[in-house]
Specification:
about 35% helix, four-stranded antiparallel sheet, single chain, elongated, about 160 residues, alpha+beta, four-stranded mixed sheet
């Protein structure tokens, strides 16, 4: 029987960018005409260029700086943090009213949170490592069932010996 460590590369099993909603991007793009209006007394052509650059820059920054949730190489990665799946318990995902409660009054302040507005689903994963002060991870996702399944597959893959 082979021992498997966290250093074995298993590839990306799940990946999701928590990008802003379409309405948030449209609202951010409105900054472009506002910037153009500020520079319109100077030169209208310059104002249009500044407005376009500001709108594209803000929308691009919102999309490119959005956190990524992924299961890769036996780890759950949410934003800039990562944790091995073998120290995680049984994940569960919720949507709708249960997700609003999980993001609101049911939120444990000691947990690691990667929560984004406009994304309804939430997956909560308990941390079983007794030395970790974080009791769980709470992660926003558009597809909670897929993220739960990916975590369970990664956990099963680490527990099942290769033949």
């Amino acid at each position: 029987m082979q021992k498997r460590g966290c250093g074995i590369r298993t590839g990306v099993e799940y990946r999701e960018r928590l990008s802003p909603s379409l309405w948030a991007l449209v609202a951010a793009a409105v900054c472009g005409p506002m910037a153009a209006l500020v520079f319109s007394p100077v030169n209208t052509t310059f104002a249009l260029v500044v407005g376009l650059v500001v709108a594209v820059g803000i929308v691009a920054a919102l999309v490119l700086l959005s956190p990524i949730v992924e299961i890769r190489d036996g780890e759950l990665r949410a934003g800039r943090a990562h944790i091995p799946v073998d120290v995680l318990g049984e994940p569960f995902g919720v949507e709708g009213d249960a997700a609003r409660t999980a993001r609101g009054s049911g939120l444990d302040h000691r947990a690691w949170h990667v929560i984004r507005g406009g994304i309804d689903g939430v997956v909560t994963v308990p941390v079983t490592d007794p030395e970790d002060p974080t009791p769980s991870w709470v992660v926003s996702t558009r597809t909670p069932d897929r993220l739960v399944a990916a975590i369970q597959r990664a956990q099963l893959r680490l527990r099942t010996p290769r033949r």
